[in-house]
From TrEMBL:
Protein name: TetR/AcrR family transcriptional regulator
Transmembrane segments: none
Species lineage: Bacteria, Pseudomonadati, Bacteroidota, Sphingobacteriia, Sphingobacteriales
The entry's DNA-binding region: 28-47
Keyword Protein biosynthesis: no
Length: 195
């Protein structure tokens, strides 16, 4: 890794929690220089503008979240157990080192929805990828007889994403992870009823 690549990685790592908590509009250049200890020139010597930093940071935060989920997925053998990772581990994920201000998908989607089309597109790709991954798991469950052959895998995937992101939003807004636990019980029932 070159010095420039190390500096870019350092900037991304140090500013990632700030962008995730404050959003694109709320994160200032002063926030970035304070978090990194670098000058404005050093930051913009490695990134052409704040937009480029924000996109790199979103990708970093998403990879970090995906790594936490993937670590749990790798321990599961059945499609049902893979889906249950969300039920059994999402509250834990958002109370662990994987959480630097909440879900980067939810936070960035809300922040960039009407104000930053390029960042919004990155989030849309992430949601579509997540939907595709869940749909694939559900289709595998249908193929191996774990789930009813008549279920609509795409509809269930979208419902799961909505329940997960909605529970995170409510929990963050109301300041209690108990809301995640409550919604995850409904999600557990949904998954158990797929058979």
């Amino acid at each position: 890794m070159s010095k420039a690549e190390r500096t870019r990685s350092f900037i991304i790592e140090k500013t990632a929690p700030i962008f995730n908590k404050k959003g694109f509009a709320g994160t200032s250049l002063n926030d970035m220089t304070e978090a990194t200890g670098l000058t404005k020139g050093s930051i913009y010597g490695n990134f052409s503008n704040k937009d480029e930093v924000a996109i790199a940071v979103f990708d970093y935060n998403l990879q970090k979240l995906n790594a936490c989920v993937a670590a749990q997925f790798s321990k599961q053998k059945t499609a049902k157990d893979k889906l249950m990772v969300y039920v059994n581990n999402y509250e834990e994920i958002f109370n662990s080192s994987c959480d630097d201000g909440g879900c980067p998908i939810l936070n960035t989607a809300i922040d960039a929805d009407d104000t930053h089309p390029q960042l919004r597109n990155q989030v849309a790709k992430a949601v579509l990828s997540w939907k595709a991954r869940l749909t694939q798991i559900l289709e595998q469950g249908k193929a191996n007889g774990e789930f009813n052959a008549n279920i609509n895998a795409e509809q269930i995937a979208l419902t799961m994403i909505s329940m997960i992101e909605g529970s995170i939003m409510i929990s963050k807004l109301l300041g209690s992870s108990a809301y995640i636990a409550t919604v995850m019980q409904s999600l557990k029932k949904l998954i158990n009823d797929l058979t």
